[in-house]
Amino acid sequence: MSDYQVTELGALDDWRAHYGGFVPDRSREGRRVVDHELPMQFIGMTANALVPGEEAGYWHTHASDEELYVFLGGEGQMGLDDQVVDVRAGTCIRVGQGVWRTWRCLPESPSELRWLCIRADGGELPHLPDDAERDEARPSPW
């Protein structure tokens, strides 16, 4: 028997209807933790959507995870340490360990900002990224 599983994320326009997170008290609309649905061992992935003008509302960093952000629609910005990078469909950003990150969908974006976040750290990933640190008091860079 082959070792594979299939799930459907739905059309990009349906992503905002997702509701999820790594733990219930940090779940939100527009997030789906795909590696909680598929038995992933070494990689993790979330599917995300923010409406125009919405922002994450927090910063976070990882001690051992490396993340790849693949933007699929909308227009937004990512805060990366002390810099702000514009993002849109086709933008890919690799973020290494120890880099603080946050993101937002621009108020004038023609559509929701949609992206995949793919993470790995060279070994088995825990169900909850336990190398993460959040700073909800850090002000947004915009």
From TrEMBL:
**What range(s) does the Cupin type-2 domain occupy?**
50-118
Which branch of life, at top level?
Bacteria
Sorted keywords for this record are: Metal-binding
PANTHER family hit by this protein: CUPIN TYPE-2 DOMAIN-CONTAINING PROTEIN, OXALATE-BINDING PROTEIN
What is this protein called in UniProt?
Answer: Cupin domain-containing protein
Naturally occurring in which organism (per UniProt): Demequina zhanjiangensis
